[in-house]
Amino acid sequence: MSMNAPNREEAARALDRLQVTQARHKGGRMRLLWLLVGPGILVMLGENDAPSMLSYSATGSQFGIGFFIPFVIVTFMMAFVAQEITVRLGAVSKAGHAELIYRRFGRFWGNFAMIDLLLTNVLTLITEFVGIVAGAGYFGIPDYAAVGGALIVMALAFMSRRYWSFERIAMLLALCNLVFVPVALMTHPNWNAIGKSLLAWGPLPGGFGSHTAIILLSDIGATITPWMLFFQQGAVSDKGLSVRDIPQGRIDTGIGALLAALAAVACIIATSPLFVHHMNASQFGAAQFAQALAPYVGRFGGALFAFGILEAGLVAAIAISTSSAYAFGEVTQRAHSLNRSFKEAKGFYLVLIAIAAISGSVVLIPGFPLEFVVLIVNVIAVLTMPPAIGFLLLLVNDREIMGDHRSGWFFNSLGLLVGAFVSVAGLLYALTVIFPSLHF
Amino acid sequence: MATNQMELMDSTGLGNLRLTDVYEHPVLIDQTLKEHQDSQERLRSLGQRTLTPWLTTVIWSLRVYVLFMVVVVIVNIAQRV
Prior knowledge:
The structure holds 2 protein chains of 2 kinds.
Chain A: H1 8-25, H2 29-36, H3 39-47, H4 50-63, H5 68-93, H6 97-138, H7 143-158, H8 163-175, H9 180-186, H10 191-200, H11 210-221, H12 226-239, H13 246-276, H14 286-332, H15 346-364, H16 370-383, H17 385-396, H18 399-402, H19 409-434
Helix pairs in contact in A: 1-2, 3-8, 3-12, 3-13, 3-14, 4-11, 4-13, 4-14, 4-16, 5-12, 5-13, 5-17, 5-19, 6-7, 6-12, 6-14, 6-15, 6-16, 6-17, 7-15, 8-14, 9-13, 9-14, 11-16, 11-19, 12-14, 13-14, 14-15, 17-19
Chain B: H1 2-11, H2 19-23, H3 26-32, H4 34-45, H5 53-80
């Protein structure tokens, strides 16, 4: 850094750090937390994206609440375990996830990780626009207007030229994910059944077969995906979190997991009347859930549900484009900060906008198999997770990077448990595909 | 460090922080981002880590897992079509 001519990124980050220092000295704990939260809440609510909410909708409508409410809560606990590691990695190394993989494992393994990220990000982004178009369609908004409008909102968030402003705009949008809570309440849920489900972890209607495996994997993919690791570590580093801020980073991630789990459970409860009334929802698309729910939650409830799907797609599109651009900047060693102006970081912003625009355009292609991509995207995300968890654990145990902040036996056990769980879930899915008649 | 920053902020009249004001004080920026510069320098000095045979096996196994699963997904797609 040149002391005489600080660039915009350095000045903006210094300003954020000075505000944190002030809050620490003046003892304002809530102010300190307010300044430091963001990446965790954003990544968790961002992961409650359009395909995730559709996956929860399919879960509620085809299986009810029995097995899946506690299951989804457990998946968010696992997401917390993985994301907490990115907070420590980002705060200690001040580098993004892609940069660390390339630096420590070399270009060969780094390229594999990038291919996984790029593949899942592009597919997921397409599904976010499917959600945006479907949600907007409920309100009679044409497809091209929905895609164009979403791109404009995204551009406005990115044009703030301050990570802080971007984060607050995105967080405000992300909190709209909680609209699923009032929709769930409108269905007059059976609290006894919810209580029993939490205690007994059941029932699982129809047992465990091929279809259950896909839903199961899809719900795991709705909470744990590779882009989350790249996004949160990049955001922690862009926000400028220091080692001292790790406790607040953990709280941030915990709050995010809690809010996202609440929205996910609410979505399952909201769509469970379709299961109770034996409606065949296996072929439902995004807007069809909102239409099918209208008799149970009214037109306003249906509109809220459609808005929730639209908003979920929009927030995730912002977060996923950002994760791609962070990774691109880290790998090419070009400027990659939301604190930079467009002129200072052209490559970063062009990747952001281009990847979003291309994905949005795909949705407008007539005859493109949108429903199918939505179905398969979460599954692919889970299947690419084991190597991502592997690199995550290797990096966080790297003495030269982490020093005293590497994981102890407890966090390592939890991390390994998450990796094993994701891998076994994938293998179960493979078994049900290879042996379709298999039933547990 | 933090006390120095606070003193510097007081001496430069930066009680109410704004980006344009911070721009004018490169020393303050430099001091505030010292931890970041140190981390980045430490990272730059790190080379590639040595991959033991055990580690190489683990990473390759995870890669083979993904490739196998890609085939499974393709089979699943074919079954549904």
